[in-house]
User: What shape does this take?
Amino acid sequence: MSDNVTIWKNFYKDATSQHNSYPSETLIRLLKGSWYLPDLDKDFKGKKALEIGFGSGNNLAFLASLGFDIAGVEIGQSICDAAKVKFGEVGVDLDARAGHNRDIPFEDNTFDMLVSWATVHYELNMDDYMAALREFRRVLKPGGWLLLETVAPGHSIFRGARLEGPFVYRLTREDDIRCGNTFLCLENEQYVDHYYSQVFDDVVVGRIDLDIFRERITTFIVAGRKF
Assistant: This one.
């Protein structure tokens, strides 16, 4: 785990001057647009938002700009400490703690929103995947929102990948930092709705397909609530 933390710490440090400096366009659309989540109260000031796997803090900065009190979870305390310093330099208080999808170091019913962007697919099997979703639900307040992005079939990351179990693929792209990792990828929107609806209410599932020359970015977008 310590080697993995070092790899990602260095990646996030290098990425701050690259594309990871910017929030997800899809997350911006969900929180600023009027059409996607019509039941979402857009008065975010003073509400609490948690991002799981916040990386370089690109999405957290956006959430803070909307008025959220922000918190984050990353796999190593060194990543968390670096992020707290970075946000503190611009006067933003970030509560960043070491943990992971299935071990979120916050109390029950704490957050109004939980954002999980490209993290849940690191779970190794469906039992762990579902445990992660239940942990997401645990820390949300009643009425709180889950906003989540995860890989979908056809994503270029799966080029040459090996199927190792139900929905589980071993990544083999040597030009990617995640080579050798496994990703859990549900097969279609119906599967996504089936599993997420076991944990969350009012689940809606979308899909994004983006072709950029020889690369294809294909993801599921999921929103749900805790009641």
In short: The two ends are 35 Å apart (CA to CA). Confidence is low (pLDDT under 50) at residues 15-19. The helical segments are 2-15, 25-32, 58-65, 77-88, 126-139, 189-196.
